[in-house]
Design brief:
The protein is mainly β and 403 residues long. The protein has 2 domains: 76 residues, no CATH class; 309 residues, 6 Propeller (Neuraminidase), CATH 2.120.10. The chain is built from 3 helices and 24 strands. Strands 1-24-23-22 form a 4-stranded antiparallel β-sheet, with no helix packed on it. The protein has a 4-stranded antiparallel β-sheet with strand order 2-3-4-5, with no helix packed on it. The longest helix has 22 residues. Bound molecules: 2-acetamido-2-deoxy-beta-D-glucopyranose (NAG) (2 copies). One 2-acetamido-2-deoxy-beta-D-glucopyranose (NAG) binds next to loops.
């Protein structure tokens, strides 16, 4: 595609999104939440076009700063929130620094859909081996086409050495059809989503039978018993867990540790319209669940309601700036959120550091093509990002240290 075609395509995308936003945001008084935002996207693209030969722009975009799209109603709502709206001091925010030549030897993974870090600090990846998700994977009712091919025969989960990136061990053969999300909790349990099976699972490491299963096998649906292409899971130290459900239902389900449904987000009349919640992360100290709200091109953080239900259904903290684009991955450490976007026409694909309390992007880092998932180690020393590509060079995992 030429530069000009890119521009035209992105403008068309913006206008159609603005139209969708205008029709789907039922703010009191009919305020168009996104009009100002998309004007800023247009201005940003125009600036991009004026840059030399329309070359790919790399992060960081240190000279680009745009205001988040607040409308007056939102300002008023924000002031009602129960946490302090005080920015984090810049000096206490870690910067991700790429570890060069990691892994030291190349792997031959399939699509690396997820990464997490186990309690011992080992990065663990979840991949699709020879299988990939394309237009022939699901029919229009979200039914997986290739059930008769059986589960992926190869190991889908590999534990890596944090120093060298070498494979230490693996499991997950003959279990999954189309891997998507994987989160390891503080006890070392694996929480996995499979978009083909429309299910979410809890496993012991190297387990062959799930300890817990949510959703009906190969049966998509929107009832509280069904999931539809679930994307990601976040687990609290209290044992409560959240499933991002996902590509079709665009909702979050909250469960107690035993797997009893506690709540859905949004729960009417709560105002929070999600479009493909693609990844989620918990900030327990702030009692926030931060969501990569992919197709809305933002990160939103409603109250998680872990300590008490106080504040549940309050307006969510919202991070939406024109250079954010479609957000694929989120991870957190302390009160800080890290995010990666994915291809959004001409916007650079990179990493973002976010302060959810001031609802601001406070740093840019990294340079990616098609990132899909990210995770921070339990002690906060390392951050990993996976990318989905079409060969063994581009299906990969990157390591960053948090300095
Ligand atoms: C964090 O964990 C890693 C992996 O176990 C270890 O190598 C590192 O020394 C730890 N860092 C800190 C600051 O505790
Ligand atoms: C998808 O496949 C299922 C199972 O074969 C079938 O019942 C359903 O009608 C199909 N949907 C469409 C839209 O083709």
């Amino acid at each position: 595609m030429s530069c000009m075609q890119h521009l035209v395509a992105l403008l068309a995308l913006c206008l159609s999104l603005a139209a969708v936003a205008a029709s789907s945001n039922h703010l009191p008084g009919g305020v168009n939440l996104n009009e100002r935002f998309f004007n800023q996207v247009r201005a940003l693209i125009k600036r991009r076009m004026q840059e030399k030969n329309c070359a790919r722009v790399h992060c960081p975009l240190s000279n680009v700063h745009l205001q988040p799209p607040l409308v007056d109603d939102e300002v008023a709502l924000q002031n009602q929130r129960s946490y302090d709206n005080v920015p984090i001091p810049a000096a206490s925010v870690p910067t991700p620094v790429l570890v060069e030549n990691w892994p030291t030897e190349q792997h031959s993974f399939g699509q690396v859909t997820a990464v997490s870090v186990d309690p011992l600090g080992n990065p663990v990846i979840f991949h699709r081996a020879e299988r990939y998700w394309d237009v022939n994977t699901f029919n229009e009712s979200n039914i997986y086409y290739l059930i008769e091919y059986g589960p992926i025969k190869e190991k889908t989960i590999y534990l890596l050495d944090s120093k060298t990136g070498a494979i230490k061990s693996g499991w997950g053969s003959n279990m999954f059809y189309m891997p998507h999300g994987m989160t390891i909790d503080i006890h070392g349990n694996y929480w996995i989503t499979d978009v083909a099976m429309h299910q979410a699972f809890k496993f012991k490491p190297f387990g062959s039978k799930p300890l817990l299963t949510i959703g009906k096998r190969f049966r998509p649906g929107s009832s509280v018993k069904h999931l539809c292409k679930p994307t990601s899971i976040a687990v609290a130290t209290t044992g409560e867990f959240f499933i991002a459900d996902g590509y079709c239902n665009s909702r979050i389900l909250k469960f107690n540790a035993a797997g009893k449904l506690l709540r859905t987000i949004p729960q009417p009349p709560e105002f929070l319209s999600l479009q493909v919640p693609h990844a989620i992360t918990l900030l327990e100290h702030l009692d926030l669940l931060c969501i990569a709200d992919r197709e809305n091109m933002r990160v939103v953080c409603p109250k998680a309601g872990l300590k008490s239900s106080h504040g549940e259904g309050e307006p969510a903290a919202t991070i939406q700036e024109p250079d954010l684009g479609r957000v694929f991955g989120v991870a957190s450490y302390g009160d800080i959120v890290f995010a990666v976007n994915g291809p959004t026409s001409m916007l650079p694909v990179c990493g973002f550091t976010i302060d959810p309390r001031s609802e601001a992007i406070i740093g840019h880092w990294g340079d990616f093509k098609n990132p899909h998932s990210m995770a921070v180690s339990v002690n906060g020393s390392a951050l990993y990002v996976t990318e989905i590509g079409n060969n063994h060079q581009t299906n990969r995992v990157w390591k960053y240290v948090l300095a």
